[in-house]
Amino acid sequence: MPFTLATWNINSVRLREALVARLMVEEAPDVLCLQECKSPVDKIPVEQFRALGYTHMVARGQKGYNGVAILSKLPLQDAGSVDWANLGHARHVAARLENGVTIHNCYVPAGGDIPDRDENEKFGQKLDYLTHLRDAFRAEKPGKAILVGDLNIAPREDDVWNHKALLKIVSHTPIEVEHLGMAQEAGDWVDVTRADIPSGQLYSWWSYRSPDWDSADKGRRLDHIWATADIAQAAHGSRILRTVRGWEQPSDHAPVFASFDL
After folding, report:
1. What CATH number is given to the structural domain containing 168?
2. Model's pTM, two decimal places?
3. DSSP state string for 218-256
4. d(Cα 8, Cα 6) in Å, to the nearest integer?
5. What's the pLDDT tens digit per position in 201-231?
6. Residue range of the domain that includes 25
């Protein structure tokens, strides 16, 4: 069963309902995973999405913060959610396709501005979230699974605009990269995007603080698509739709795509 999947931190699904609908019309991924929906589940504007063919949804939400949703043209079964690090946040939801593939949609905490858990509680929460992921994958090795989302870490030197300049900036510090790497290794996850695009600068996020974001191009690759090793070879067609960052009233993230032949 071939399908295309996209992941996008939407930064308020209600505020950017029209952008989600535009992506559905113009790109038509079979499955669209959203993070930072900032909405209770019953307030997600599903009517327009259903009219565009996205008749299936599993989601976890909360008022004004966090929130994750998987919208799909394909039938989905709710596969639960985990409160990683026991934060009480809506940061994970899973869904199972009819072909048995489980999709995990994750929104890792951003971690605040100071990369020190003693000075910054949010940074500690981020590390704890990743540690919980690692431990869960070590305890039960995932299989036939895809993990996507805003993982809020740019792990490689070419995932940021300036490696040396960002080594002490949250999202690219060595300790974050190490924690993400351990979670990835524990689940035997393959970074699908980098398997398809193995070299070169690649970004999915550009700060709102830069009005000339496109020309300045000081981006980071914070949004990821991973697949377990048993199905990773079925992935192809990875791309980041940079132009979406330039739409009117955009999210600061661009959607990331991959296709799977399973």
Report:
1. 3.60.10.10
2. 0.98
3. --B--EEEEEETTTGGGEEEEEE-GGGGGSSS--SB--E
4. 7
5. 999 999 999 889 999 999 999 999 999 999 9
6. 2-261
